[in-house]
Structures are given as structure tokens and as C-alpha cells.
Amino acid sequence: MSGLRQENTAMISWRWHSVGLVLYEYAQLKSIHKEDLMVRHRACKSMKKTIVEATVVL
Known about the structure:
Elements: H1 2-28, H2 34-57
């Protein structure tokens, strides 16, 4: 059972890392189209939701 928990924790840390990369990339971009900005914002929000759901499972 502890192996499963370890796997879940690894998945969550990977997702957190992905969010960090998205935010880092977002910060690097100075000139960005508004539509692209909205797409990134939605992707980031859905990823945060996934993290919350995964945390609840743990």
C-alpha cells in the first residue's frame, strides 16, 4: 500500500513541477497575444484543479 502512496506523491510532485514550468515560461514571455494568454491561464487552472483532486485522494 505504501508503494501506491509513493507513486501518487511522485505524480503530484511532477504536476507541481509542470505548473512551475508553465509559470516560468509565462514570466519569460514579454510580448504575448491575449488569446494565447487565456489558453495558458485555462491550462494552468485545470492543472491546479488536478493537483487539488490528487491531494484529496491522498
